[in-house]
Amino acid sequence: MHYGQARSIITHWVHIQLFTISSQICETLTNVLFAVPALRAHFSFDQIPFSLSTQHQPLQQPMARILSLLHSQTLVTLTGVRRTVVCRMSLEARARELFATAVEAVQPDAVVRRGVERKDDSLVIDGRTFALRNNLHLVGFGKAVLGMAAEAERIAGDHLVKGVISVPHGIQETLRCHGKSQMLLKDNSRIKVMEGAKHNLPDGDAQHAAQCIKQLASELTEKDLLLVLISGGGSALLPAPIPPISLEEKHDVTRRLAGAGATIQELNTVRRALSLLKGGGLAHVAHPAQVVALILSDVIGDPLDLIASGPTVRTDVWPEEVISILQSYKLSDSLPASVKEVLGRGSPRWENIKEESAGKGGVLNTVIGSNSIALKSAGRRARELGFRPVVLSGDVCGDVKAVSRLYGLLARFASSREEPAPELAAEMLRLGPEVGVESWDLCRTMQVLDEGRKEGWGATCLLAGGEPTVELTGKGRGGRNQELALRVGLELRGMELPPKGPMFLSGGTDGQDGPTDAAGAITDGGLWEEARAQGLDVEGTLKDNDSFTFLSKVSGGHRLLSPGLTGTNVMDVHMLLLPSIPIRIPNDPEADDRSLRYM
Ligand SMILES: Nc1ncnc2c1ncn2[C@@H]1O[C@H](COP(=O)(O)OP(=O)(O)OP(=O)(O)O)[C@@H](O)[C@H]1O
Ligand SMILES: O=C(O)[C@H](O)CO
């Protein structure tokens, strides 16, 4: 049998459309076919359906022939051949499902379950074993910590002696209202829940919680194990200013810094220098107990010393660095005397912390959930939903204007039926570093898109993550994800509409984008026309940062992404769904419209 025969079998099989193979075999087969250039040039795999059900004998024979022809798999794999009802979800439904999958992968209880294994009377974390002898204590601070604590208590059982967590004001009531009971502690829990930091700002309640956490940590002995649960928002929930700095003084410095546009790196570098518990202070207080920190990251690159200002990561404070940050935002002259005094003391502070050590008195810091885990999970699901997944980058930052331009260019690059103009790639390479995307990642992605376009690989799901910024120029209601989606919608203007054209989604994994009820939005090339038909002013909306109001009105608000509060936070997820470009097989009578399908 030669490739021509194989091709007709494959074509026949693809066009049956009602039958499919398990996703594992689908992947194997697809990989095998991609590996054979003679076949690669002729087939578009966007039509490989998916989903699983009962065995279907008639398909086994042609598949066996394909596989044996390609010298790869044995017939054993064919026992997985199944019959199915083809699921043809719309692009939009799949975009929403992929976002839900990304969020699901980083649910606080799920990440703790994956990160902590109970083996008899010990916990296994990051490959290390910690003996449990009714010696486990727990503290935590951050927006996702309630769900993490509930799961940790379920795993540790009676070995948990006691715990204190500092969580956002009103979170228990909110989670109850959203039916997220698995994220709440049971009535007889040994963990004390302390709510504070209203509007994400350190306050007296959060300071009291920090004192209780410090107290618990300071009472531990070398026989004890302290589990520290950390997630985004932890800095505001663990305020412990170094005396004589008052909470108000510290808050005033950080508030002015944030207002002046300081990055989270700059902000937390300053916070660490003014705090008793940040920058390794908590681990210092807990010494000589063994400390294990489970971290759900909300900072690009997962820097341990910056997430929640690194209370379990020994970090030396360099006053010169802190002063230079304050100077760059013109704050150094107006500092309170107490802050100047503390900065005058210098570093190092915590000599007794043995980092990454599993021995007594050591500290293990481990990231159990992050944006990249969310993207990976969405990528796996994308494959099941018929896409070829490509992760562009998890470090997207910078102004939403530049970010939206990059996605617009990527969409044009991928959708072009002809060789894209070199200026397109050049502009992307220029923009990439501006928005945190490495040139290498861009080149890799362009190569995948280019090959997909030339060889008909089918629909692509381009995934990215991070936290871009919006320059606020107006007083409207919106968030960075909605504004990004709106801007990408404008970039896609003039391109084909889904299902033939691209679709973009941007969503905050916490379910709340800025001060709005939506997490983000879904847009495509039709947005501009829809807005015009409804008499909505897109330019005015952008000037006033009023994306939420706009998206609530346009097409009855159906473009909004509103999953409700998710109880987790690993920054944002971006998704560009790129349908396949139909390819024609030259001089092939079978290459009619049946092969020109889109996902
Ligand atoms: N009207 C608006 N339009 C666009 N963006 C806005 C608007 N109002 C606020 N923002 C942006 O929303 C961001 C704050 O939103 P959000 O509360 O989702 O922050 P976050 O960074 O996700 O917080 P955390 O990481 O603590 O959860 C800020 O970056 C701010 O610039
Ligand atoms: O709490 C904080 O410092 C921010 O959410 C970053 O982790």
Automatic annotation (TrEMBL):
Domain MOFRL: start-end pairs: 461-572
GO CC term, one of those recorded: cytoplasm
Enzyme Commission number(s): 2.7.1.31
Catalysed reactions, as listed in the record: (R)-glycerate + ATP = (2R)-3-phosphoglycerate + ADP + H(+)
Any matching Pfam family: DUF4147
Stored InterPro entries: GK-like_C_sf, GK_N_sf, MOFRL, MOFRL_assoc_dom, MOFRL_protein
Domain MOFRL-associated: 95-343
GO terms, molecular function: ATP binding; glycerate kinase activity
Similarity remark: Belongs to the glycerate kinase type-2 family.
PANTHER family (UniProt xref): GLYCERATE KINASE
Protein name in the entry: Glycerate kinase
Species this protein is from: Gadus morhua (Atlantic cod)
Protein's gene: glyctk
